[in-house]
Amino acid sequence: MRAGNAGDADSYRRLLLQLTPVLRAVARRGLAGAGMADTDAEDVVQETLLAIHLKRQSWDEDAPIGPWLRAIARHKMIDTLRRRGRRIDLSIDDFAEVLAGGENEPSMLVADVDRHLECLPAGQRKVVRAIAVDGASISEAAARLSMTKGAVRVALHRGLRALAAKFNGEGT
Amino acid sequence: MKTGDLIRALAADSEVHPMSPGRALALASIPGVAIAFGLHFAVLGLRPHLLTLLGEPRLLFKLWLTFLLVALSGPLALRLVRPGAGVRRAALMLAVVPASLAAANLAELLSVPAAEWGQRLVGTNAVFCLKSIPFLAAAPLVATLLALRQGAPEHPALAGTAAGLFAGAIGAALYATHCPDDSPLFVAAWYTLAIGFVAAVGAVAGWRLLRW
User: Fold this and answer.
1) Residue A73: which domain range?
2) Residues A44 and A73: beta-carbon distance below 8 Å
3) Who's near A107: CB < 8 A, 6+ residues apart?
4) Which of A105, A136, A151 is where one domain is finished?
5) Rounded mean pLDDT of A62-84?
6) Of B160, B42, B37, B22, which Cα lies nearest the Cα of A61?
7) Do A137 and B1 touch (CB under 8 A)?
8) Number of domains in chain A
9) Under an 8 A CB cutoff, do B84 and A71 touch?
């Protein structure tokens, strides 16, 4: 995380990838404990990752990172439960066996999670999609979309913030 | 979007270095306090003969108490926007302020005849005090809340309250250099009420602005 804060994108990416299975397990347990469908788990994981990223400056580098991560994951879990609580949840008991998966990311959710991306303004959506889905680097995305690197950076950052806001505003 | 894709986007965004809440607060305090100073000198002004009165224990206590509240509530607000940071020690430290105020009040009651208590409590401009402290605290409160948005409070309303205490204490510290009422009785009644009002505004604003 320290490397990530120092701008080392590769080790930062590895850290987030390593965290993901843990976050996924926590999200599944949390949702199951509240008697909710774990189809939402991937949403919670992505929302937590976004929060970890956008709030990474709130971690004091001299403090242990465990409590910080736990507090963020808990906050996002509570957020989700609160939002879902206001919604009508269809019973998923019938699907329970189909849904009981392992640590793998359920691919059938992709379309569902994608809806957040669709809500972004076109400029941000193109940049986020080029970098996230197509795997372009900042400079590749800049070349492809004929934008400056700076503009790509700004659009990416705003897009991520908007995604986080979309998660937050959902259902409220 | 798959989670792996999201992570790629997050990693690409890591070249931007967001400012830590502490740094943001330090930077935001400069214009916030500068505006408060400007308003103070433009509208209120220093009390006449302030420097010659600095030996006066009641005035010194009043100034010391407001500075103490600034010094203690600032770090508390910063801890409240750091997920997982323990706040108990910082919150307990804050109790030093009401404790010293209570001690000073006791000393005042013992040293001043009972007939003067009422006059010292009401002072000469209580209502003006109630208006001036929030007036001076407004710019610091906005600055503090904006800075705390860099953080991630687990309890936004609580973080907003701490921001309000911090800003209210800055307003009170400035007002204390204008206000002619130095009795701890006056401070306990009116300063507390005014700072409490700013803290309440901070709580509501924090609840709305500091959610993430």
Assistant:
1) 1-105
2) no
3) B2
4) A105
5) 87
6) B22
7) no
8) 2
9) yes
